[in-house]
Amino acid sequence: MIKCFEGTLNQSGTARVAIINSRFNSFICERLQEGAVDALQRHGIADEQIAVYKVPGAFEIPLLAKKLADSKKYDGIVCLGAVIRGDTPHFDYVAAEVSKGIAATSIDSGVPIAFGILTTNTIEQAIERAGSKAGNKGWDAAVTLLEMIDLLSRI
After folding, report:
1. How far is CA 15 from the centre of its chain?
2. Active-site residue, selected from the candidate residues 67, 73, 90, 100
3. Domain spanning 17-153: which CATH class is it, in words?
């Protein structure tokens, strides 16, 4: 018989979670944070087990994620931000480096890190993903994190 392992969302209030959120595009990022916190609370994580860290922009997220992962204070980290395409190639550089940095930090540290960075072509697309038509990607990232915390604890 094949053994299948899958994480659950109920942390029984034991997980310690850090949220890193960008202040750039704050009108989007604040909605993402609200969604992430709501998801954590609804799945049994108490306020005192959630810490929110603000960084200037998305590019700064990987460095703080590494510091927090190395601190061993948190069972998982949710990274939130919004990189919206403009008229220059800046979007491509920032989106690529943030993605690589977060992935490398998670792999190197063994700490689950959820990717809640919006990379959209327009402000309207970002708004849709921060709590309107397309749901809230902050919520989705927090739920993903809880599942990964649980799954990794079973190994």
Report:
1. 15
2. 90
3. alpha beta
